[in-house]
Amino acid sequence: MEKTKLKESPVITVKRSKTGLGIYTKSEINKGDFVIEYIGERISNAEADKRLGMYLFELNKRVTIDGSSRKNIARYLNHSCLPNCEAWIKKGKIMIIARRKIKAGEELTYDYGKEFFNGFIKPIGCKCVKCSAK
Fold first, then answer.
1. How confident is the model over 60-83, as pLDDT tens digits?
2. What percent of the chain has pLDDT over 70?
3. Where do the structural domains in the chain lie, given as residue ranges?
4. pLDDT, position 127
5. Distance CA 104, CA 25 (A)
6. Angle at the Cα of 57 from the Cα atoms of 55 and 101, rounded to 5 degrees
7. What are the two backbone dihedrals, phi and then psi, of residue 92, each rounded to the nearest 5 degrees?
8. Whole-angstrom Cα distance, residue 14 to residue 22?
9. Residue ranges of the chain with pLDDT lower than 50?
10. What is the pTM of this model?
11. How many CA atoms are closer than 13 Å to the CA of 47, on its beta-carbon side?
């Protein structure tokens, strides 16, 4: 795992994307830079199983973050099969980090993982840039 450069977050905006709302960067982001933290209510995994929400992010075997609050801007990060960001879990926090250099104006995306993909995305078809190009 690379060392994360924790510095000031890039300037981002939420706006319409191909799949609803998405996050776009207004500034260039370097590979390895911190982008945004995925925040929300910490709940047990048993409670998460009851809620069945789309913004649930499993932190570990016991705790899930429910990121459904609109205060959690990171909830607008869309899935991509060829993402420019990735989620790192560090010290009980979910940090979104740039996987590569990202140009100003690009939509920020990460891979939601196999379980989410199979349960929510696959049944309706993936609409990410990589899959839409097929």
1. 999 999 999 999 999 999 999 999
2. 93
3. 12-123
4. 82
5. 5
6. 95
7. 75, 15
8. 6
9. 1-2
10. 0.85
11. 11
Q: What single-letter DSSP state applies at residue 54?
A: T
- Cα 124 to its chain centre, rounded Å, is 19
Tokens of 104: 């100003």
The pLDDT value recorded for residue 134 is: 63
Find where tokens 């060829």 sit.
82
Residue 85, pLDDT score: 97
Q: How many CB atoms lie within 10 A of CB 46?
A: 9
Q: What gap in Å lies between CA 23 and CA 60, rounded to an integer?
A: 26
Residue 119, classed as helix, strand or coil, is helix
User: For 12-123, which CATH class?
Assistant: mainly beta
Q: Which residues, listed in sequence order, are joined to residue 23 by a DSSP beta bridge?
A: 14, 108
Nearest to 56 by CA among 68, 46, 71: 68
